[in-house]
TrEMBL record:
Region (Disordered): 1-31, 352-372, 713-781
Molecular function via GO: 4 iron, 4 sulfur cluster binding; metal ion binding; molybdopterin cofactor binding; NADH dehydrogenase activity
Residue intervals passing through the bilayer: none
Residue ranges annotated for the 4Fe-4S Mo/W bis-MGD-type domain, each copy included: 30-79
SUPFAM superfamilies reported in the protein's UniProt record: ADC-like, Formate dehydrogenase/DMSO reductase, domains 1-3
Protein name: Assimilatory nitrate reductase catalytic subunit
Organism name: Prauserella sediminis
Stretches with biased composition (Pro residues): 8-17
Enzyme Commission code(s) on record: 1.7.99.4
Length: 781
């Protein structure tokens, strides 16, 4: 069997062309600013007018296409859900306050808690959507101004497994170690656990060459829109993709398809790896995965016969308690076929969040310093401390990873306060009910956000911050290319940049003037120095080079260095220049199905929404198109549960239950149920997910848990569950809904304009009260 087109690729990728009359004009004519989409790691090029009119532009990542999220991204700039004044909880209510008051309250409370409990009493939580400058300054703020070791970020939930696997195989982790445009020349591309047709539709353009050659292979338990466009779709049982990689690798060796010259010259560790793989002959793997032995052998032959081939992994491979090993298994397969470090072939990871790559390089991870340096490396500490003007010994040790940090909040040995920047952990963290309870147990919670997200609604202080189009900053896309996202419009009155927030707080913590700049370019200049000589060396990247349109992929060790679009062509980054095979074994999901929970629940994304949905749910077009959580199941699975299309169902696991409307999909495996993770309240997919962590990356097992499907006794609810307030009385910690945010915003505007102050305040208060009443009666509104 050879790889051939069993499903013709669609005539068009769903990257929408510019509507008639909306053609981008060049930057510099005073009407349009070249910038990039605020959402995913593709970082599509777009232009923006001062009136916030979006148009796509030619850029290698998107070639003039944008998805629905990109086209509608500007509507959040003047959304009624937008926060435009700081809010401080007083008497149980979030009330408008001045910036000075809000920052003074934060500084006083954090100082008090650190004096009583030590520096680690204050935690910081960042995000993979923050610019490089913000991620860098946040890490510096935590370690220098607060002196805490307790900092991590939500990228731990997305890309850390591929990062760890890439590091141990190649010595360096960069999502794609080649420009994504290289993919166009491939005749075989294997996508493992990736659904770009919904997550980053313009990316499909780069896959069309392989699809036309009959070599686009998608490996996913679901027949996703991407799988629909593939030539071959292999659907292993959830949690068995590691075993599938072992089976294909076994077939490669058994059929004499191993690239022996490459393995001998460029790798190490094959023999140890093979001792494990030898037990995974394809027929055995068929019984584990459900993928036929013939299909495993066909995939091996397809890779061996390809002129140009790539293996690409994404969240489906990573988000397991064995995520690092799963990615390693696919890297082993790529090495066996001689792909990494060969021009026109390779292995890569498709990062998810907008700055998923840069966000993991510059110091907001628990164990990391800028430039991808390790916090426990004495030389790294000395270099970065020198740039920061502090003693190396004053830098804290590595702290807790993301879920462990969230789980420790409010515990006797855990942090008593937390600052959250660019993350909505109430929705996005695993076992989210538990996370909400931990947040509620804090003495003090601060969030910096655009809208009153579900996490912000629990905070004691909420700081309204600028968005992508209102500020300069750099992002690093999924191929390691550093991009300049330019300011196109002024922010609304009352809103400040996260950089201003950190500078204002640092000043209140007694930091010397100038140690925490507010200008993005100035901070980037400092980041360049801090990263110099590191793995992710940005020292040769300047704003001027980016403004001139240079394509700079890190490392860029000098201002006259052209950047490094293709890594590993000469050697891998280990001292001996060889890539490593890593022996990994299949163990299966941390929580296999059983009689009580006979199904396997998996989570993922919808085309219309991004991450926790805090932003995209506030965009009317997107919210209307995907207003609530769906539950995708095979029709027979639904029927066995007494459910039909459109019925409201509950997926239950040992940790909780999520409610949504049934969507029957005939291509689903009958043992799998799918829930998207963008929705709040009782629709949170993470109410059921398993927080079992990968031992290396500390990535939770989002992608599979044992579950059962039952009819629901109420409509899907976006209201915060009661447990959010279990740890604090409602009078002290009162969540408000996003609608309440709108009402609250109205009251602030009225107050600021000096009209109807009393009635405006009453309106906000009344809306809050209503939401609490709804929650206390089950929230079925
Ligand atoms: S969300 Fe991603 S794919 Fe869609 S326009 Fe933005 S960057 Fe491009």
């Amino acid at each position: 069997m050879t790889l051939q087109a069993v499903t013709p690729p669609g005539p068009d990728v769903p990257a929408l062309p510019a509507p008639a009359g909306r053609t981008a004009t060049p930057d510099g004519d005073g009407t349009r600013t070249d910038t990039h989409c605020p959402y995913c790691a593709l970082q599509c090029g777009m232009t923006l007018t001062p009136a916030a009119d979006v148009a796509p532009r030619e850029f290698p990542a998107n070639r003039g296409g944008l998805c629905q999220k990109g086209w509608t991204s500007a509507s959040l700039l003047d959304s009624p859900a937008r926060l435009t004044t700081p809010l401080v909880r007083t008497g149980g209510e979030l009330r408008p306050a001045s910036w000075d008051t809000a920052l003074d309250v934060i500084a006083a409370r954090l100082t008090e808690l650190q004096a009583a409990h030590g520096n680690d009493a204050v935690a910081v939580f960042g995000g993979g959507g923050l610019t490089n400058e913000k991620a860098y300054l946040l890490g510096k703020f935590a370690r220098v101004a607060l002196g805490t070791s307790q900092i991590d970020y939500n990228g731990r939930f997305c890309m850390s497994s591929a990062a760890a696997a890439g590091l141990r195989a190649f010595g360096v982790d960069r999502g794609l170690p080649f420009p994504m445009t290289d993919l166009a020349g491939a005749d075989v591309i294997v996508l493992v656990g990736s659904n770009p047709a919904e997550t980053m539709p313009p990316f499909l353009q780069h896959l069309q060459g392989a699809a036309a050659a009959g070599g686009l292979v998608v490996i996913d338990p679901r027949r996703t829109p991407t799988a629909e466009q593939a030539n071959v779709h292999l659907a292993p049982a959830p949690g068995t993709d590691l075993a599938l990689a072992l089976g294909v690798l076994h077939a490669t060796v058994a059929e004499g398809l191993l690239d022996e010259a490459y393995v001998a010259e460029r790798t190490a560790g094959f023999d140890a790896m093979w001792r494990t793989v030898a037990r995974y002959w394809p027929e055995h793997v068929e019984r584990i995965t459900g993928v036929s032995a013939a299909d495993q052998r066909a995939l091996s032959r397809g890779l061996a016969g390809a002129r140009s081939a790539y293996v690409l992994t994404a969240r489906g491979a990573e988000q397991h308690a064995t995520g690092v090993d799963t990615v390693s298994a696919w890297i082993n397969l790529a090495l066996a076929h001689g792909l990494p470090g060969r021009a026109g072939s390779g292995y890569g990871c498709l990062t998810g969040q907008g700055n998923g790559q840069g966000g993991r390089e510059h110091g907001q991870k628990a164990d990391q310093l800028p430039g991808y340096r390790k916090l426990d490396d004495p030389a790294a500490r000395e270099h970065v401390a020198g740039v920061w003007g502090i003693a190396p010994e004053s830098l804290p040790a590595p702290g807790r990873s993301a879920f462990e940090l969230l789980d420790a909040l409010g515990q006797p040995e855990g942090p008593k306060a937390m600052l959250v920047f660019g993350s909505n952990v109430v929705v996005s963290a695993p076992r989210s009910q538990r996370v909400a309870e931990r947040l509620a147990a804090l003495d003090f919670l601060v969030t910096a956000d655009l809208v009153l997200s579900e996490t912000a609604a629990m905070a004691d202080v909420v700081l309204p911050v600028t968005q992508w189009a209102e500020e300069d900053g750099t992002m690093t896309n999924l191929e390691g290319r550093v991009l300049l996202r330019r300011k196109a419009i002024d922010p609304p009155d009352g809103v400040r940049s996260d950089l201003d927030v950190l500078a204002g707080l640092a000043e209140r913590f007694g930091q010397p003037a100038g140690r925490f700049p507010v200008d993005a370019e100035e901070i980037f200049t400092e980041l360049r120095a801090a990263s110099a000589g590191g793995v992710a060396d940005y020292s040769g990247v300047t704003y001027d080079r980016l403004r001139a349109g240079e394509a700079l992929h890190w490392p860029v060790p000098a201002v006259d260095h052209p950047g490094t679009p293709r890594l590993f062509l000469e050697a891998f980054a280990h001292a001996d220049g060889r890539a490593r095979f890593v022996a990994v074994d299949h163990t299966g999901p941390a929580e296999p199905p059983d009689a009580e929970f006979p199904l396997q629940a998996t989570t993922g994304r919808l085309l219309q929404h991004y991450q926790s949905g805090a932003q995209t749910r506030a965009v009317p077009e997107l919210a209307e198109a995907a207003a609530e959580a769906c539950i995708e199941v095979h029709p027979d699975t639904a029927a066995r549960a007494g459910l039909g299309v459109g019925d409201v169902a509950t997926v239950e696991s040992r940790r909780g239950a999520v409610t949504g409307r049934v969507r029957c999909v005939a291509s689903m495996r009958p043992d799998v149920v799918f829930v998207p993770f963008h929705f709040p309240g009782g629709q949170r997919a993470n109410l059921i997910t398993n927080p079992a962590l990968d031992p290396t990356s500390r990535m939770p097992e989002f992608k599979v848990c044992a579950a059962r499907l039952v009819p629901a006794d109420a409509e899907p609810s976006a209201t915060q569950p009661e447990a959010v307030t279990q740890q604090k009385p409602v009078t002290q910690q009162k969540p408000v809904t996003q609608q309440a945010s709108v009402e609250l915003q109205k009251s602030v505007t009225q107050q600021e304009s000096g009209t109807q102050q009393a009635s405006g305040t009453q309106q906000a208060s009344g809306t809050q009260q209503k939401s609490v009443e709804q929650r206390e009666t089950g929230g079925a509104s």
